Amino acid sequence: MNAAGPRRPGVRRGAAQRGGIRWGGVDGRRRFAISPLILWSFGYVVVGILLATAAAWPVYEAPRALVVGIVGGVLGMLVAVVARMLRWGLLLAALAAAGVYLVVAVPLAIPSALTSVPAFLGGLRDAVLGVALGWKQMLTLNPPLGEYQAVLIPFLVVMIFGAFFATLLVMQQGRRATIAVPVVAAMSLFGIAFGLSGTSSAVTVLGVALPAPREWLIGVAVFVSALVWLVGRTRLQRAQALRAVAAAHVSRRATPVWLNVRRHLLSAGLAVVALIAGFAIAPAAAGWTDRSVLRDEVEPMVVVQQQASPLSSYRSWFASDRLDETVLQVDGDPGAVDRIRLVTLDSYDGEDFHIAPEDRFSRLPRTALPGQGRVSLDITIGDAYRGIWVPAPAGLAEAPQFAGERADDLADGFHVNEGGDTAITVADAPGGTQGLVPGDSYSVLVDAPSDGIDLTAAQGGSSKLDTDLYPALAEWAELQEQPRSGAGYLELIDRLRSRGYLSHALLDDTSAAAWIASLKEADGYAFASSYAGHSVSRIEQLFTELIEQERRAGSDARPEMLVSAVGDDEQFSVAAALLAQHFGLESRIVIGARLAGAAEVPGIPACGEVCTGANMSAWVEVRASGGEWMPVDTTPQYAMLPSSIKEGEQLPEHPTVPEQPRSEALDPPQAQSDSNNDAQPLDEPRSAVLSVLLPILRGVGLGLLALVLLVLPLVVLLLAKRQRARSRRTADDPEVRLAGAWEELADMYADHDIAMDAQGTRAQRARSTDRAAAARLAALVDRGVFSEHPPTDDDASAAWAIVEAERADLVRATSRWRRIVTRVRPRSFIERVRPARGTAFFGVRPALGTLGMTGSLDDPKKGIS
């Protein structure tokens, strides 16, 4: 007699008895039916989609993000429903979701790639690579991201696959459906994890300041929606069970009224507690630690720190072969924009001014929200410049629109620092270099500069310098007897410039002839030599010369008697920056060019449409703590020559100054500059063929790598199944090989969607499949295991012959595509780690036997249950 009792006609055992839903197999027993419970569960997923879209809005702030979130989520739900209706396996359903993603990714998330066939293929490539690489691209952009390149791809992936798996789970009948709760919550977590470092502005509710109200509302909404769905799901399941009992004419006792009241009060109480707890904990939690999101932990791969300080090679702009060459050309009306920046340097190590190592560079969105008073300029790089620094005005509203054959590469490599003061592109350039090359062009959209503040009103403070390292600077500043304020600082800069003398070279040779002739032609100029470099020793030497000259001439001497320091913007900008720090102000150095709207600076003319090496300048930007940066020009004068005064010399009452064109200065002995960072010669360009082939080979390599990564899990599954069957078939003990044949048959049925009861004897489980081979094998295995004599090698071989014959029959009954899917599907592995009956929700059965062991997981004795 059957140990499990008589079976009723027309009633099938299996997955339905275990409380779960098995995806439809060859028997076609599982049907998809719309019920109030299914509709209720779908409603929960829809709410999760809307909450996830709302959470991601601050990341993008673009209408396209709403379309991607809602449409992507709905598509994921539709794929799950269709897969259930057609009784597809999990692997086939996931492949269908991936196919839908590939079809809609470009038109939905990368609409800019629809302009041409090559652009579409590039967008499709970005959609594939964006699954793995798009997350980092998001983190290297400053929000809001808009529709920049492929930044919407990660959001589309989350919405399609999140809604897909959530819908699959909510359609389950057992406790497995509750796993949908963390899946739906993770969809909303995307917008928070990849969002802004700061939170929404605090609001006051009932006299209590509630920080981060938007984040708080989303979190509470996610919790409450999950709670409501779980409670409603339980009630709908109970109603279904009661209807089934009533249909069977089974009497039942009515539920006490107090029990219903208690159930409703408990549900409402949980929701109220969640609201109160969130309202009470949020203010305290906000002060526990600074908010940290993923974008705070990821830096783009840039080469800024490998670059020599641009200030060290400043004098190379004035070499004879670069002085009149075009650095850049500006087209368009600059309006209030009066300066073009090349780079902003904010850190000094005693040798060079450079960009601080902790500065963070990130991408800038390609599209900006509407703004007032913006200026659009077209910039073309000339023959005198190449490098990673992108010349642009401050206040870029969006990423530049690059033109030409290298436009996409330049755009992909474009980054700006956190304040938007320095822009770079790390795109590969011909000749093995990086960045811009002559002929590159781009358009910039710039926010109109503000009127700024009056620096004279700024208040300084205690010195930010170690005065022991700068004794001459500190002494000269004290000699001037100026207050520690913006007004006092500006007076110091005026004195510094008027007591300095402009010179770009150490020797009056052919390399300096061009700029000397230019200054002579303008206002008359007499050459004076000066060392390059801006190390501490060079700056201290400059202030020492000023101090000695002032002591010899007297503090009340005429201005022309106080001229003694010789140099150019390299030294004087550093001196001015250090003076600002000594006065308690913040400072940094900017290298660039002044446009026509800027104040005139003798010696370094402003440029109109064309900026050459002669227009390149360096200035400082100064601000009080946390204030707005204000530019301060530092170029020294060249109208008055330095005066040489000996110690104890009596100055004439009415001194005469020699006429400058007839003034001569002796050349000092040959000396070396204290700067060893002169510009390096340009590398010879590589072959044009390599320049074309390398990007193509790189793209093909990345595509092949992505394909290998996609196929690798399937190969691992195939090898694991082969190793599992081999270890079972080649076991030393015939009895183990006999039991292994039964386990192999059970796994084979699982992969082919043939339902087999997990409980019962082998004979009972074999009958549940309605397969004759299963019954023959069960009898053979039971006879060999329970017989008085141990099984022989012939018995084991016969058992495995049945398995192979059954495998051949199943293969012949399925299509070629179905055979491929069956070989790589993980069903037989998953069945062995599913929660067993009576275990906790997160309890799993041991996975022993999955690869090589034999025997049932329900009974430790060779599969006997």
Keywords:
865 residues, alpha+beta, 43% helix, 21 helices, four-stranded antiparallel sheet, 20 strands, elongated, disordered C terminus
Trace the largest sheet across and list its strands. Answer: 9-14-8-3-18
Structural class: alpha+beta
Number of helices: 21
Q: What is the percentage of strand-forming residues?
A: 5-15%
Number of strands: 20
The percent range for helix content is 40-55%
Uncertain spans: 1-30, 277-301, 657-666, 669-685, 835-865
User: What is the terminal separation in angstroms?
Assistant: 16 Å
How would you classify the quaternary structure? single chain
- Overall average residue pLDDT: 78
Describe this structure in words.
By secondary structure, the chain is α+β, with helices and mostly antiparallel strands. It folds into 3 domains: 36-294, no CATH class; 299-649, no CATH class; 699-833, no CATH class. The strands form 7 sheets. Strands 9-14-8-3-18 form a 5-stranded antiparallel β-sheet. The protein has a 4-stranded antiparallel β-sheet with strand order 4-17-19-20, with helices on one face. The two termini are 16 Å apart. Residues 1-30, 277-301, 657-666, 669-685 and 835-865 have low confidence and may be disordered.
